[in-house]
Backbone:
């Protein structure tokens, strides 16, 4: 890709605003220079420049015109005239950064290769081969994606079958290659740890070894195909590049995003590590990022196949006696691990990406702006110790607010109570301000729990709702069940009900992640329905998007986007905006909502505040003159969900499936967590292949598809109708 020049707006700190600059991209020397005008450029009067080696491009999913470049501990902010212009600049910049990355890697290889230590020379060659394998692996994946697109366009069944067979072979090959690269990286880190600390070899199952033939084929492929490209890229430019990015004016220094660290008042800016691009990392996880689920197919592996979960136990029987930091983990009387206590312990250390710099920057070098993160591998240490299905259950941490919806006699008050419960749910769904990613549920995985609500308990109640989601729960308890109903795309369905109050909630969510440079966005596609059975009312609501910010330092979560809550029967509806924090100021977690009466264009109630704290309401119809507290989530009780013991759970329940991964993460044994996660996923692949060979379709157990959505098989409204007959 050639150079590029043109006009862009640049944020100027001195005037706190945007000013036009003429930019010239010189990819051959990895430099973006800017001038006050095109005439100044012709005269060679440069205003400043941005070095591109090790730089990170960022975009804002809410603003189609702006983008950022973070490098040399600085963040530059730019604005194009429209989305198309921004796309052109981002693509050219990404290409220039990729070229500079290879040139730097090649320079380092020459320096180290000339040293007297043959050990260093071999390691450099090892890094080069793995990097080349990564490159060609991504090329194969791109071709596989084109084949999948072609399959969708083919109408002839015989021809489609041929392409399907080819796709299956490619997926199998990608799976072997990915596994081989993981083992090679583990071997390299064992022999030469990046941090200078010997961690010992990682214990794997006897089956967890890649075929030597596959490794030899990778090496041969790289040798034959790669040499020509790398020789072509080895030329050097004699142009002098500044040691750091700079601006000629003190007042035009880069804009810094202030206070990005939720636990510090100091300014936190993403950092760039000169050596991090060089360091290889193990591809330890198929999981993409953020607050909700993503796919598990990656740019270095075949997508995880759909399958039903059987028992996935550790090959070591007595887990409590493993050679790991077992003293930090709770034990049962028999010496085995107490998994229930591990799950209930929500204490966690802060996640700092700076301590894993080589991992994160290598990850960023593998992706493109706007790329679907279902094609990206993230490391295991980024995982949160719970499944996505359990995270959805945590949104019911205020079950009393949910049940109160059914108690109001006035439709207007019922709508306000739905909005109040909805806005109170999100803070409880997040365990901390630090962004970590829940486990991707496997196909057929379920999570069940219930809540005891003292103020709604019926004395001496023995009425067990055996046809409900949890057949051993009583009629005065709120019950919840979730199931992963689809893997491609990843769709979770969940349902909750309170039998005595005749209220239920059903929802399905399809999560789709996108890489935004210094942030990760998760689009939550789907809807939820609150059903009041006695009144035959439904409240249909949508979900905000999630964003993981500051992924190079201490990542944090925010929500963004417009959501709606509508009651078709009464005509009441609400519109709520989850406001993202602008880069030039503002607060986090802000919301602004309006609630409307039937057939009215002006809202009768405005809501504003923070979904993580205080939200206030202002009545616009004159019924109340002063603003009042709508809900303060920090002043209302959180009810603890009740989950059956791991030892009593079915084999496809979340906590039992992920117990070994959870134990590994809790004890900070990342190798153990990674190996356990691989066993879960590998079993799924094997079962998916078996189903395909037997031409057997997957059958969900608790939910069924209905049009574009999913519904619970035996909802409360249906059962009550049958009881009345």
Residues:
């Amino acid at each position: 890709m050639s150079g590029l020049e043109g006009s862009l707006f640049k944020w100027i700190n001195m005037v706190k605003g945007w000013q036009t600059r003429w930019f010239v991209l010189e990819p051959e020397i990895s430099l973006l220079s800017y001038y006050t005008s095109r005439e100044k450029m012709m005269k060679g009067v440069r205003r400043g420049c941005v070095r591109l080696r090790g730089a990170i491009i960022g975009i804002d999913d809410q603003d189609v015109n702006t983008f950022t470049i973070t490098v040399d501990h600085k963040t530059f902010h730019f604005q194009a005239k429209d989305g198309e212009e921004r796309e052109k600049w981002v693509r050219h910049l990404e290409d220039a950064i990729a070229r500079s990355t290879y040139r730097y890697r090649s320079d380092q290889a020459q320096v180290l290769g000339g040293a007297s230590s043959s050990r260093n020379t071999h390691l450099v060659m090892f890094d080069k081969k793995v990097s080349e394998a990564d490159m060609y692996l991504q090329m194969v994946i791109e071709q596989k994606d084109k084949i999948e697109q072609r399959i969708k366009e083919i109408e002839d069944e015989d021809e489609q079958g041929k392409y399907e067979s080819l796709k299956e072979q490619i997926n199998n090959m990608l799976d072997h290659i990915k596994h081989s690269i993981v083992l090679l990286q583990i071997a390299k880190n064992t022999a030469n740890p990046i941090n200078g600390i010997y961690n010992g070899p990682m214990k794997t199952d006897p089956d967890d070894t890649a075929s030597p033939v596959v490794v030899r084929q990778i090496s041969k492929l790289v040798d034959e195909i790669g040499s020509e490209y790398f020789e072509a890229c080895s030329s050097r430019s004699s142009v002098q590049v500044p040691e750091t990015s700079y601006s000629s004016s003190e007042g035009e220094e880069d804009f810094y995003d202030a206070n990005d660290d939720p636990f510090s008042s100091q300014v936190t800016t993403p950092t760039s590590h000169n050596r991090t691009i060089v360091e290889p990392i193990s591809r330890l996880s198929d999981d993409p990022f953020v607050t909700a689920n993503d796919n598990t197919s990656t740019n270095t592996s075949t997508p995880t196949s759909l399958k039903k979960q059987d028992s996935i136990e550790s090959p070591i029987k007595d887990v409590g006696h493993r050679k790991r930091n077992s003293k930090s983990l709770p034990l049962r009387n028999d010496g085995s691990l107490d998994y229930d206590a591990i799950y209930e312990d929500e204490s966690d250390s802060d996640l700092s990406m700076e301590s894993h710099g080589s991992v994160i920057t290598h990850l960023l070098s593998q992706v493109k702006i706007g790329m679907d993160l279902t094609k990206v591998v993230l490391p295991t240490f980024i995982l949160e110790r719970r499944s996505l299905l359990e995270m959805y259950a945590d949104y019911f941490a205020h079950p009393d607010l949910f049940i109160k919806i059914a108690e109001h006699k006035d439709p207007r008050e019922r709508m306000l109570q739905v909005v109040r419960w909805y806005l109170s749910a999100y803070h409880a769904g997040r365990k901390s301000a630090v962004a970590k990613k829940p486990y991707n549920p496997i196909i057929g995985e379920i999570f069940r729990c219930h809540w005891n609500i003292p103020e709604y308990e019926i004395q001496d109640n023995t009425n067990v709702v055996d046809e409900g989601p949890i057949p051993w729960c009583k009629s005065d308890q709120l019950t919840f069940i979730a199931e992963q109903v689809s893997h491609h795309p990843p769709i979770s369905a969940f349902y909750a009900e309170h039998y005595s109050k005749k209220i239920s909630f059903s929802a399905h969510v399809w999560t789709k992640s996108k890489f935004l440079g210094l942030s990760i966005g998760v689009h939550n596609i789907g809807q939820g329905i609150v059903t009041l059975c006695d009144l035959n009312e439904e409240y249909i609501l949508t979900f905000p998007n999630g964003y993981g910010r500051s992924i190079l330092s201490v990542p944090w979560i925010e929500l963004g986007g417009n959501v709606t809550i509508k009651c078709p029967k009464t005509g009441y509806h609400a519109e709520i905006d989850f406001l993202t924090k602008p880069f030039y100021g503002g607060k986090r977690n802000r919301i602004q909502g309006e609630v409307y009466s039937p057939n009215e264009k002006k809202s009768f109630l405005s809501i504003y505040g923070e979904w993580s704290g205080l939200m206030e309401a202002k009545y616009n119809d004159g019924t109340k003159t002063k603003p009042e507290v709508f809900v303060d989530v920090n002043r209302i009780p959180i009810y603890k969900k009740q989950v059956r013991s791991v030892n009593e759970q079915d084999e496809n329940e979340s906590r039992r499936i992920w117990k070994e991964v959870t134990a590994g993460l809790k004890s900070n044994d990342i190798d153990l967590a990674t190996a356990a996660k691989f066993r879960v996923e590998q079993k799924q692949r094997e079962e998916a292949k078996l189903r395909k060979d037997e031409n057997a379709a997957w059958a969900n157990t608790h939910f069924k598809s209905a049009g574009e959505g999913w519904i619970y098989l035996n909802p409360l409204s249906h059962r009550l109708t049958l009881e009345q007959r």
Remarks:
- The longest helix spans residues 118-153.
- The chain has 14 helices and 25 strands.
